[in-house]
Design goal:
This protein has 289 residues and is mainly alpha-helical. It is built from nine helices and two strands. It has a two-stranded antiparallel sheet. β1 and β2 (261-262) form a beta hairpin. The longest helix has 39 residues, at 43-81. The protein is elongated, with a radius of gyration of 33 Å. It starts with a helix and ends with a helix.
Length: 289
Amino acid sequence: EAERAARLERLAALRAAADAITEQLGTKEEAGCEGTEGDGASYRALSALEARLDHLREEKKRRLHVLSQCTEYIAELRHKLKIPEEQHPDLPSPEKDLSQQVLVTYHTEIERLEALKSERISELIPETRSRVAALAAELHVSAAELAAAVSSDGGDEEQQLYDLEAEERRLRERQATTVKLFALLSKREGVLQQRAEMRASANDPNRLLAKGAGVARRLLQEERLRTTIEKDLPRMNKRLREMTAAWEEEHAGERLHYDGATIVSMLAAQEEDDARIEKEEKARKEAEW
């Protein structure tokens, strides 16, 4: 009796959970999961109800995922079409209602917005192209790489907009996943600029003719800066290689570019150039002796 009572309690809990989800989905309970008398308390009935509940939970998860994607797409379309918030029709909350009618309501709104998008496609193309150009500049995407990804002016407008929107999504994803990497690249550019200025100053013959305490102080500052750069630049390059390798591995081997060159090849070129300059400087000094 105790075992049967436990099964009945378990059945009641499962049925309550199934009823709640069934109501959310707006579906009817299947036959065969009803009574708790006679065979209703059997292990077979318990197993059938557990399977039914698993099915309901999977369907609920699927509908929530679909509606989440619909919500994101609707928000994206409203933003691109610049539709004022007061003109947004109210959509039912998925948390309260997951019925088929709710799915139809969301898809109907998407169809309405896509129709508006088609009507305004000639306005949307230059707006989207402008956003893509700004992202490409921020992420140092070369003109050749950008041209390969999007169609040029003219031709089918729907294809143009499709290509531009796909490229915008790709660049925004890259922007979100390379924030720290590009911040370090920017910092490295600053170090390289400082070094270029220092080298130009070192090659100025007039600086050695200057006199006064300020000259000695400036030379000391230059030496300290040179030491800092010699230590920081290799560390930055090493970290950039690690971050780039991790990003490319996460993106199925896609190569990360910077102004038309892969980041790895850009770092290698800078290091090769440094080695060449150092070798030439050493040879020059030896020749002077």
